[in-house]
Specification:
The chain has 7 helices and 9 strands. By secondary structure, it is of the alpha/beta class. Strands 2-7-1-8-9 form a 5-stranded parallel beta sheet, sandwiched between helices. Helix 1 crosses helix 7. The radius of gyration is 16 Å and the shape is globular. It starts with 5 loop residues before the first strand and ends with a helix. The mean pLDDT is about 95. Bound molecules: guanosine-5'-monophosphate (5GP). Guanosine-5'-monophosphate binds next to strand 5, strand 6 and helix 4. The site of guanosine-5'-monophosphate has 15 residues, from strand 5, strand 6 and helix 4.
Amino acid sequence: MKRGMLIILSGPSGVGKGTVREELFKDESLNLAYSISMTTRKPRPAEKEGVDYFFVDEKTFTQKIADGGLIEWAKFVGNYYGTPKDYVEELLDEGKNVVLEIEVQGALQVMKKCPDALTIFLVPPSMEELERRIRGRRTESEDIVMERLNKARKEIATKDQYKYVVENDDIMAAKEKIAKIIKEHKA
Ligand code: 5GP
C-alpha cells in the first residue's frame, strides 16, 4: 500500500486551525487522519481526553521524551506539547494522510526530519482580527491572551519556511484552498 503523506498545519493561536481542520476532515476524498498530541495543558471545558489531546502531567510527558516516543515536542506558553510517534507511523503505513496541527518550533523539527512533508501556515486577515478571535474564546486570562498575541507575531514571522501560506479570511474558502493543495501534492 502507498504510504500516506505527512501534513503539517501551523498558524498562530486563534487563527482558526481547528475549525478549518474540522472542515477538511469532512472531505473523505482527502483520506485524512488526525494526529492527537500529548500536552500538559489543562483541558478547556469542551475538550475531551483522547480526542482533542492526551492530557498528561509533566512527569509523564518528560518520560515520553526520554523514551524517544515523540516525533517532535515544544514548550508553548508554559505547557509542553508533542506528537506521539507510534500512532503517526501506524496511520502513515495504513496509507492515511496524517495531519499534525502543531506550533512552529515543533514544525521546524519535523521539516528537518521529513523534508517531504507538506507544510501549510495559516495566517489571519490581520492582527486586529486575530486579537478579536483570541479574546472571543474567553477561556484565557489577560496575561495568557497577551502572551499568545506576542507569540503569534513571532510565529507569523516564520511563515516563509512553510511550503504554503494560506489566509483564513473565510473558513470554507481556506478549507477549499488547502484541499486543493493536498490534492495537487498527492498527484
Ligand atoms: P492550544 O493550547 O491552543 O491547544 O495549542 C497551542 C499551540 O500548540 C497551537 O499552536 C497548537 O497547534 C500547538 N500544538 C498542539 N499540539 C502540538 C504538538 O504535538 N506539538 C507541537 N509542537 N505543537 C502542538
